[in-house]
Amino acid sequence: MSNPVIRVVVAGDLGTGKSSLVNFFVRSVSSAEFDPTIEETYTKRISIDGVYYNLEIVDTVDNEFRDNEQRQCLYVPSDAIILTYAIDAEVTFTNLLLRY
Questions:
Q1: Edge-to-edge, what's the strand order for the sheet holding 40-48?
Q2: What is the pLDDT of residues 23-76, one digit of tens each?
Q3: Average pLDDT estimate for 79-94
Q4: What element of type H or E holds 73?
Q5: Which residues contact 39 (CB under 8 A, 6 or more apart)?
Q6: What is the rounded CA–CA span in Å between residue 60 and residue 40?
Q7: From the CB of residue 52, how many other CB atoms can be counted at a distance below 10 Å?
Q8: Residue pLDDT, tens place only, 6-28
Q9: How far apart are the C-alpha atoms of 82 and 91, rounded to whole Å?
């Protein structure tokens, strides 16, 4: 029997640390050696209260390139969405409020 899947989407503007967050969680490394302009899906097996799950993490590309229909197709089947913004760029927080 396979483990249940939890699907998480990480979204936000370019430069808000989406790929860094995902890489640190999945690989336990902090590295600048990745391409932040591609959308990738990572899988990590986790245990919650003794139950194992396959955590599927979608590291998205900047969401300004998506229309509402594309966003819905990406987010609706998700169990959780992590929204990122840069604390030194207020516009990235404002964009979250406008898009979500």
A1: 40-48, 51-59, 5-12, 80-84
A2: 888 887 766 665 566 778 899 999 999 999 999 999 887 655 567 777 777 777
A3: 94
A4: helix 68-75
A5: 58, 59, 60, 61
A6: 7
A7: 11
A8: 999 998 888 888 888 998 888 87
A9: 17
Most distant CA pair in the chain, distance: 46
Per-residue DSSP letter, 6? E
Q: How far apart are CA 45 and CA 39, in angstroms?
A: 20
pTM: predicted TM-score of the whole model, two decimal places: 0.82
Bridge partners of 10, per DSSP, are 59, 82
Please report which helix (H) or strand (E) contains residue 98, including its range: helix 90-99
Whole-angstrom distance, CA of residue 92 vs CA of residue 88: 9
Rounded Cα distance, 47 and 92, in Å: 33
CA atoms within 13 A on the CB side of 76: 6
- Specify the DSSP element, H or E, that contains 23: helix 18-27
